[in-house]
């Protein structure tokens, strides 16, 4: 980069930035190639269970959470800690109990998710 001057240097930096953005856009995140918004939307059957820890968790919610934990286990945490969840006023402390309430055997019990621990 020392040999690059002026316009060539700017073009080089722009090319590097575009390369990095493409890598990020192609799914380097916790949800693989699935955008976090899509992952969150797939969990919409869980909305009735995220505000009350004693509420019955719908079967569709359990199926989707189970599938998510099998394919991309870190994605659930990423969704729960995302700005989307915050904007939707999701109670993370309650939502994080859903895998246990669904009796999902392969849940990552004991794993940290922000300041929360999966039961």
From TrEMBL:
<dbReference type="InterPro" id="IPR036312">
    <property type="entry name" value="Bifun_inhib/LTP/seed_sf"/>
</dbReference>
<dbReference type="GO" id="GO:0009627">
    <property type="term" value="P:systemic acquired resistance"/>
</dbReference>
<keyword id="KW-1015">Disulfide bond</keyword>
<dbReference type="Pfam" id="PF14368">
    <property type="entry name" value="LTP_2"/>
</dbReference>
<feature type="domain" description="Bifunctional inhibitor/plant lipid transfer protein/seed storage helical">
    <location>
        <begin position="31"/>
        <end position="113"/>
    </location>
</feature>
<dbReference type="GO" id="GO:0005504">
    <property type="term" value="F:fatty acid binding"/>
</dbReference>
<comment type="similarity">
    <text>Belongs to the plant LTP family.</text>
</comment>
<dbReference type="InterPro" id="IPR000528">
    <property type="entry name" value="Plant_nsLTP"/>
</dbReference>
<feature type="signal peptide">
    <location>
        <begin position="1"/>
        <end position="27"/>
    </location>
</feature>
<protein>
    <recommendedName>
        <fullName>Bifunctional inhibitor/plant lipid transfer protein/seed storage helical domain-containing protein</fullName>
    </recommendedName>
</protein>
<dbReference type="GO" id="GO:0006869">
    <property type="term" value="P:lipid transport"/>
</dbReference>
<dbReference type="InterPro" id="IPR016140">
    <property type="entry name" value="Bifunc_inhib/LTP/seed_store"/>
</dbReference>
<keyword id="KW-0732">Signal</keyword>
<dbReference type="InterPro" id="IPR039265">
    <property type="entry name" value="DIR1-like"/>
</dbReference>
């Amino acid at each position: 980069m020392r040999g690059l001057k002026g316009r060539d240097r700017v073009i080089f930096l722009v090319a590097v930035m575009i390369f990095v953005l493409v890598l990020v856009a192609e799914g380097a995140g916790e949800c693989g190639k699935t955008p976090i918004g899509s992952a969150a939307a797939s969990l919409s059957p869980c909305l009735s269970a995220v505000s009350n820890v004693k509420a019955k968790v719908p079967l569709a919610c359990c199926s989707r959470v189970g599938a998510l934990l099998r394919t991309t286990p870190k994605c659930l945490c990423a969704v729960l800690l995302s700005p989307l969840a915050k904007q939707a006023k999701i109670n993370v402390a309650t939502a994080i109990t859903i895998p246990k309430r669904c009796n999902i055997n392969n849940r990552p019990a004991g794993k940290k998710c922000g300041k929360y621990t999966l039961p």
